[in-house]
Each structure stands twice: as C-alpha cells, then as structure tokens.
C-alpha cells in the first residue's frame, strides 16, 4: 500500500493544474479530504480547483474554504490531472465521470468495494477515512499546517468514525486526531457544528420517519423511509436528514438498519448500516451501490411508490439475515 501512496505522490508532483473531485451527496469525509488535499497542494505551489457535482449540505457552510468548492460546469479551465476522492465507483462523481476518459486520473479511497477506475489508485480499506489518507499524503509532501487546515482535515476523521465510536477506530485514528488537535483543530467546534446544529423541522421529519418504522426478523432488522412530499412539507432536502439510519441501528435488538429517502420522484437514496456481523456492502453491491461492511448505500430507481419499491430490498435483507451465522 505504501507503493500506491508513493505512486500517487509522484503523480501529484508532476502535475501543475489539478482538478480535485469529491462525490455526490457529499459527507464530512468528502468535504474534508477534498479541501485538505486542495489546500495542501496549493501550499506546495499547484493550481487547484475543488469540485463536487452536488449541492453542498448547509451543515458544512462556514467551515474553512467550503465556499471555494465549485459545481459542474463546462467552462472549467484545462487541467493536467483529475484527483478523485472517497469514491468507490465512477458514478459517484456525477457528471465529472466524463473526464475520466479525457485526462489522466488519480484515486484516493478507503472503500473495500472500490472498482479501481482511475489510472493511479491508492485504495486502502484499513484507513478510517479518506481524510486520514490525505493527512498521510500531506505529511509526506511536508505541507505546513495551520489551524484551518488542521480543522478541515480533522472533520473527515471525526465524521467517518461516528466521532470515534465505529469499528474503524484504532490507535492510529486517535494518534492522527491528536496530532491535528496539536496543530490547532478544535474538536468541540467540529462536534458542535455537525451534531448540534439541527433545525426543528428535522425533528418533525424524524417523527414522520418513526411513523414509517418497521421491525422485522425478530427485531434484528429495522427500516424506514421518507418520500419527496415529506421533505417538501418542511422545506428540507434529503441531505439535511443524514443521521437517521444511525438512530435505527441504535435500537438494542437491531443488527441491520435501512433508511430510504426519495430525493426525486422515482429515485431514492438507500442507506444501510449493521452493528456487528452482517456485511451490508454485499447488499449495496447487489443493488448497484457500494460502501463499507457496516455502512453502505445505493440508489433505488422505480416506477410507483417508494414503500412498495423497497419491498425487494427488504425481503433480500430479511432472508439473508435469517441465514446468517450471527443470527
Ligand atoms: P450513506 O448511507 O451515509 O449515504 O453512505 C454510507 C457509505 O456507503 C458511504 O461510505 C458511501 O460512500 C457509501 N455509499 C452510499 N451510497 C452509495 C452509492 O450509491 N454507491 C456507492 N458505490 N457507495 C455508496
Ligand atoms: Mn469516507
């Protein structure tokens, strides 16, 4: 794996104009790795544009450099290199996918389901987050850190580990987080911004999601969903309601949790989580998505209503759970 990090490092050193790209439905790790790498590369003299083909969720507004992230446009300048972050398959980068056949590309990611779709790939599922991989790379590049860079780099490590709670937490996570705190990252500021920044409407939406909650497989499987009219009722978007699947997993009997949000009629994002033995990435891959063994997702497309379209996935999980060893 060190070989791939070095290959990525030398590829970055050779390029001058670099397009750094995060994934659609950006989460904390996406924003963090995108901005940390972009700023780091600028600090060693590169010309960089950070991009994401999606609206940036309001929770990240006001964090350092977030306003610099650009969306998709055909008027972007010429680049010598495309760097893709935190993305397990090419469809994750939205319309920027087209660039993969046009300019040379580098991929940095920590998903076990990665399809190695760039010219130079550094993929290592042993890392807690892509932000953690970027930290290693910036250290190798001897990029100077200030408070803002430390904070934005810390963000992805904190969010992708569920604030240091998930099974991807090991001593290297704490060592890296400690180093970023020494460099000026404020853990309380990050936690407050992300976890204690909810609008009251999110609670109303949560009430609707609880109304739709079903428990199957002797309580081991919990699922729920919201459709577009639920979001419209409170003028919220799918991105504004990211944590509910974690709440479903927190039910004591639950091993697998599923939460589906319809962000456009006939299209829903499905989030999957498991607690100990069930590999949800296998389910996500079977339905065209990907992720980690305990946190995965995919897009469900259908005619008709979400509640009915979900039944295929629900019975798929229900029967797998009945046959799994841990049950
Ligand atoms: P979330 O449920 O929070 O959206 O995503 C959980 C994990 O699954 C993340 O690591 C994310 O990258 C991955 N994931 C979510 N949706 C998709 C998808 O549509 N395709 C792929 N390949 N991965 C996804
Ligand atoms: Mn990640």
Number of domains: 2
- Named at the architecture level, the CATH assignment of the largest domain is Alpha-Beta Complex
Return the CATH topology of the largest domain.
inorganic pyrophosphatase (n-terminal core)
Provide the CATH top-level class of the largest domain.
Alpha Beta
The number of distinct helices, counting runs of at least 4 residues, comes to 12
Beta strand count: 11
Order of adjacent strands in the largest pleated sheet: 6-7-8-9-11-10
Strand content: 15-25%
Morphology: globular
- Low-pLDDT parts are none
CATH homology-level superfamily of the largest domain: inorganic pyrophosphatase (n-terminal core)
| Structural class label | alpha/beta
Mean pLDDT score, rounded?
96
Summarize the biggest pleated sheet: 6 strands, mixed
Kindly, what is the distance between the CA atoms of the first and last residues, rounded to a whole number of angstroms?
A: 35 Å
Task: Bin the helical content.
Answer: 25-40%
Radius of gyration: 20 Å
Structure notes:
The protein is α/β, with parallel strands linked by helices and about 325 residues long. The chain folds into two domains: about 1-195, Alpha-Beta Complex (inorganic pyrophosphatase (n-terminal core)), CATH 3.90.1640; about 200-325, Diaminopimelate Epimerase, Chain A, domain 1 (Roll), CATH 3.10.310.30. It has helices at about 1-15, 30-45, 130-140, 145-160, 170-180, 185-195, 200-210, 230-235, 245-250, 280-285, 305-310, 310-325, and strands at about 15-20, 45-50, 80-85, 105-110, 120-125, 215, 220-225, 255-265, 265-275, 290, 295-300. The structure holds guanosine-5'-monophosphate (5GP) and manganese (II) ion (MN). Guanosine-5'-monophosphate binds near residues 88 and 297.
């Amino acid at each position: 794996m060190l070989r791939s990090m070095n290959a990525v490092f030398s590829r970055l050193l050779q390029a001058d104009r670099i397009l750094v790209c995060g994934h659609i439905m950006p989460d904390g790790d996406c924003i963090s790795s995108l901005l940390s790498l972009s700023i780091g590369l600028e600090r060693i003299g590169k010309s960089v544009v950070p991009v994401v083909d999606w609206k940036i969720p309001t929770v990240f507004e006001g964090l350092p450099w977030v306003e610099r992230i650009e969306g998709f446009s055909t008027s972007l300048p010429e680049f010598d290199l495309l760097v893709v972050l935190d993305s397990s398959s090419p469809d994750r980068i939205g319309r920027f996918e087209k660039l993969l056949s046009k300019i040379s590309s580098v991929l940095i990611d920590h998903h076990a389901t990665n399809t190695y779709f760039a010219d130079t790939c550094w993929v290592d599922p042993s890392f807690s987050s892509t932000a953690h991989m970027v930290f290693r790379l910036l250290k190798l590049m001897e990029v100077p850190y200030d408070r803002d860079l430390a904070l934005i780099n810390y963000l992805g490590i904190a969010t992708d580990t569920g604030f240091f709670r998930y099974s991807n937490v090991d001593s290297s996570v704490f060592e890296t987080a400690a180093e970023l705190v020494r460099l000026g990252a404020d853990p309380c500021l990050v936690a407050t911004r992300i976890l204690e920044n909810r609008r009251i409407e999110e609670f109303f939406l949560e009430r609707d999601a609880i109304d739709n909650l079903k428990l199957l497989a002797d309580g081991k499987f919990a699922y729920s969903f919201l459709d577009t009219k639920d979001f419209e009722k409170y003028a919220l978007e799918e991105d504004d309601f990211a944590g509910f699947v974690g709440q479903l997993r927190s039910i004591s009997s639950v091993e697998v949790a599923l939460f589906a949000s319809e962000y456009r009629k006939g299209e829903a994002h499905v989030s999957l989580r498991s607690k100990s033995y069930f590999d949800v990435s296998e389910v996500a891959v079977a339905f065209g998505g990907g992720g980690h063994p305990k946190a995965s997702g995919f897009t469900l497309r259908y005619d008709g209503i979400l509640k009915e379209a979900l039944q295929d996935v629900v019975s798929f999980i229900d029967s797998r759970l009945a046959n799994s060893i841990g049950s």
